[in-house]
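Minutes, project huddle
Topic: does the predicted pose make sense with zinc ion bound?
PN asked that the exact inputs be recorded in the minutes so nobody has to dig through chat later. Recorded below.
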Amino acid sequence: MASAHSTTDSEPTALHLGGDLRLTRQRREVYDVLLEQRDHPTATELFIRVKERVPSISLATVYNCLETLAGAGLVKQVNLDRAPSRYCPNLDDHGHFHCTSCGAISDVDFKDGPQHSRLRLPRGSVVSQIDVAIKGLCPECAARARQKKPDTRKSRPALN
Ligand SMILES: [Zn+2]
Ligand SMILES: [Zn+2]
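Predicted holo structure (tokens), as shared on screen:
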């Protein structure tokens, strides 16, 4: 991947959408911030982070940038239930583990591909994307839960 701060015009062609140079720069900042901290932030969380670098940026612009990046295939939108969308720059086929306690989302890599070869799909189907959402407790929350109530085997957590 080209360096984000390269002085030459070496950005991926996918980013050459629209003619507004300022927006292109903002788009790049949004993308950089997404790449730096891969915790699947919401648009609002991203906005707060990007604002530290581009104080003039607005939330609407961040949404705009995300839409363009998603449209260009550089960023994936992660949706779970009715929660606000999260954004993920990992373009490899992967699933997401959602912690139901703290809300953390982490990438789950598939061990051996191609994944759909293991699924019983209707005959003749062509897979274009795999979305796997796994819910549970992240290691920190699981450890905390174990400390709180040592005997959790009797009361099973409610599945929502
Ligand atoms: Zn957690
Ligand atoms: Zn992800």
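Observations noted during the meeting:
- The domain at 92-112+128-160 is CATH 3.30.1490.190 (Dna Ligase; domain 1).
- The chain has two domains: 14-78, 92-112+128-160.
No decisions taken; revisit at the next huddle.
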